[in-house]
Structures are given as structure tokens and as C-alpha cells.
Amino acid sequence: MSECDCSSHGGPDELKSLEEALELLLSHARTVDLVEQVGIEDALGRVLAEPVTSRITMPPWDNSAMDGYAVNTADLNAAGIRLPVSQRIAAGISGAPLASGTAARIFTGAPVPENADAIVIQEVCAQEGDAVIINQLPVVGANIRRAGEDTCKGDRVLAAGIRLEPQHIGLLASVGVARVSVYRRLKVALFSSGDELVMPGRSLGPGQIYNSNEFTLQGLLNNIGCEVVKLGIVKDTFEATCDALLDAAQRADLVMASGGVSVGEEDHIKPAVEKLGTLDLWKIAIRPGKPLAFGHIGKVPFIGTPGNPVSLFVTYCLFARPFILKAQGVTDSLAPRAMTARIDFDWPQPDKRREFARARMEMNEQGEAWISVHRSRSSGVLSSLAWANGLAVLPENRPLAKGDSVKFLPFSELLS
User: Fold this and answer.
1) Are residues 247 and 136 in the same domain?
2) Cβ atoms of residues 241 and 234 within 8 Å
3) Which of 66, 91, 325, 351 has minimal CB crowding within 10 Å?
4) Do 302 and 387 share a structural domain?
């Protein structure tokens, strides 16, 4: 990954749009350079490094889509016709060619016998001894899944750059692929700085708080398939911060930290990163999450998010997540897919920055989607994220009234 040329990013007081900041960030994302082979049972969440082609035609032969009777429609002159049942064909068995004037008992997935051109579902038939009465005439091709209607041998079934989900794994198995080439997992190193931090499970002393940000970030990174390297809580000194950053850069592809990037006497991350490499601090025209730090420790990229837990969460979703996905080798779907719904509140005094409000989208009794927002706008209220199921995008400088439509980013899009 290349080093950051901070001089090209504008002055320290420049307020950047979300789109401009994200473009700058993504321009420095480089895909991990190691590819490995894994079995498909271990491939969930991994990113394909090479396209996959089908080894077979699927289905390999015409087969029955239903339980019923295989017939030749030329033998059926009227509903209620009685045909002798000449054979029974279960899945995994190839039947003999269908004799003229007969029907074959057949089950879902079984190969359609030669000379048959339709399947009559059993619900419209009546068995009578060794014969069947067809009470409803089928059309040619009814209830037959044709050979190759899914894939043909040699077809590209998955493109490189796809993050493998369960349906992709199933598709790979269906065409006989047992192993795939994927990019190595991205290693992300985390550490926390602050003498006030205490790990959960211990008692709090005066002025202390629990170290929640580390666990939030770890969960977010695990959700998108990263290998997380945890370095724990670092002493709140310049020397300890430098040592931790160097250690993190030697062990990971990306270093992340929350807070500590302002200019206070006890904020050591900013001067430490600047000493060891380069750092750019951007002020983004969003709320929450105005400050974002990006730079390099040597050649290893560094992302610093705000320390307030909601700001951390929002900046991760909007900036760190797409950066990481691109570094993992994902070639599309970097941006979350937004939905549109109406709001159930008035917003008469909009912010000059675009606001990503903690929100819930729910359906009313008429099946209409409505968005409500949390009562608190504080970036320190972590419980608001547990209440929400997404973020409502409230435009900058535009008042809104109940019933207006806005974009909604569901957590299902932001966290995977």
C-alpha cells in the first residue's frame, strides 16, 4: 500500500464532503498480495481472487420438477384418460424410454425418460391399480427442468472480487467445485490508549470507564472477515504509543485506533503517527463523526476514528468499511445499498452537515415503511445503536416535515 501524500488533501481546516473524503481514502486502498486455496467449507466470507467456471452442465439432464407422472402429450386426447403405469423412476435412477400409450411414475429430481415431454403432478391424477387417470391435460414441457437451465459446462458462475455468501458456496458445490482461490484475510491491528480505560469484568475506579470501543471495533471487523490483532490497552504516554504503533505496523496490514488524534496534552496518537510516518486529519461534513484521521506508519495504512462510540461506529461504516473491503479484494458493492422511506417526525432545524441519525425503520399496519429517530443526538449514547436498526440520512441545510422521504441505511448493509 502506498504512502499518503498529505499535501494533496487540502488545509487542516477544510471541511470535506463525505464523497470527497471517501474517494481520497479509497485511492490509497491496496489489495492484499497473497492468494490461497481453501476448501469451500472454509470459504464463507472470503473474497474470490479468481473467477470460477462450472465443471458440469447443471442440471446434467432433463429432470422432474414435481412428484407425478411422466407422459407423452401425444397420447393424451382428453382429460380423464386412463394410462397403464409402465415403470417407476426415483431420483438417482435412469428409467427406460417411455413406451407409447403409457405413463411413468416419477419423483422430483428424477431424470425424465426418453419419449416423455411433460410431467403431470400427482395432485391432478388418480391411481387405479396398475394404471393412472389423468384428470388435467398438461402442456408440452410442463414441470420439466431442462438440462443446462442453471449452468452449462464452462460457464463463468462467479466473478473474482465477490465476497462468498452461503448461496455462492451452494452454487460452487452444485457445479462440482471443491476448492477456490481467495485473498488472504486482511490483518487489522487494534489498540486502545487511555489511562482511564478498564477491561470489562474488572471493577471501575474513580474516573475510569470500560473499554467498549475495542470490542465494538473488533466485532465490526470480525463481521467482514478480518483477522484482528489485539494489542490491548497502551499506557497514555508518547513513548508507549510509538512502541504500540510500530508493533502494530509490523504485525498487520492496517492499524486502527479510536480517539487520541486531537491536539490535547494527553492525545499522543497524532504526534506519534506523524513521527513514524504521515498523518492527514480531515474534517468531514457529517454528523456524528466530523474528524477522521488517515495516514501511514511506514507503508502500513492507519485509520483513526473519533473516540465517542457513536462517532466511531458511523465513521467505521462510512469510511473504514469500504476501505477494508477494497483492501480485501472486493471489486464491487463497496457502498451500502440505501432504502427510501418516510419519516414520522419533523426536522425543522437541519444541521449544516449531513446527519446520519440512529433510526428504526418499521412497517405499519398498511405495509408502509416509516422511519423514527432516537431521542438523543449525543455521540456518546451507545445504547442508541442497540435500539436502532439503521441510519437515517438527513440532508444538510434542508428542513424536513413528517411524511417526507429520506434515505435509510439498514445495519444489514453497513455491518457485512
Assistant:
1) no
2) yes
3) 91
4) no
The answer to which of 114-118, 216-220, 306-310 has the lowest mean pLDDT is 306-310
CB atoms within 10 A of CB 100: 10
Amino acid at 226: C
φ/ψ (deg, to 5) at 66 = -145, 160
Q: What is the pLDDT of residues 305-354, one digit of tens each?
A: 988 999 999 999 999 999 999 999 999 889 999 999 999 999 999 999 99
CATH number, domain containing residue 47: 3.90.105.10
The answer to whether residues 199 and 177 belong to one domain is: no
Phi, psi of 221 (to 5 degrees): -70, -40
Taking the CA atoms of 36, 40, 44 and 49 in sequence, report the sign of the dihedral they define.
positive
List C-alpha distances in Å: 150 to 44, 113, 159. 22, 20, 16
Helix orientation angle between 269-276 and 238-251, rounded to the nearest 10 degrees: 50
pTM to 2 decimal places: 0.87
**C-alpha separations of 333 from 164, 236, 253, 266 in Å:** 13, 39, 22, 39
389 to 62, 177, 355, 386: CA distances (angstroms): 45, 37, 16, 8
73 and 124 in a single domain? The answer is yes
Structural contact between residues 63 and 143, judged by C-beta atoms closer than 8 angstroms = no
Q: 161: alpha, beta or left, given left = phi > 0 and alpha = psi -120 to 50?
A: left
Residue 332 lies in a domain: no
